[in-house]
Amino acid sequence: MRWTPLFLGLALLAGCDSATEQPTAEPIEGMDAKAGITVSDARLVLPVVDGRPGAIYLTLANTSDKETELAAIYLDGADRVELHESKMDNGVMTMETVDGIAIPAGQTVALEQGGLHAMVFGIDPADESATREITLTFADGDKTSLDAKVERVGEAAN
Ligand SMILES: [Cu+2]
């Protein structure tokens, strides 16, 4: 029974430590969500070979009452991520860069193969991560970070 006071003392010390750490964790949690915007089904498709771009697909749902615009996506380690739109032009699939992707109030917009999508340049095709963190920046400056599932499908050139 002699160890009981010591044990209590340690428990109190541990309690103090976690209390002082709490404030530093809060700003990081705040970055993980943008009010009124839900991001789901985020995937990072790796290129088949080095030198080819990869792609990011995800779904954005705007549950707020005002339009939001996705301005950029950041992936650590990649040269750059561009927002693209695929279009049929005289029977040929082409794509062009877009400055931003509007998500109207109450609407859901999907970044998907053959439509709006994000293309990732300078990415390692041999990345063995199960997930990679991506950061979305909106036109109003808000940012949201989330994990994208890493896929190795080899259909990243659309
Ligand atoms: Cu593209």
From TrEMBL:
One Pfam assignment: PCuAC
PROSITE patterns, sorted: PROKAR_LIPOPROTEIN (PS51257)
Signal peptide range: none
Record InterPro entries: LpqE-like, Lxx211020-like, PCuAC_sf
PANTHER family linked to this entry: BLR7088 PROTEIN (PTHR36302), COPPER CHAPERONE PCU(A)C (PTHR36302:SF1)
Name of the featured protein: Copper chaperone PCu(A)C
Organism this protein belongs to: Alteriqipengyuania halimionae
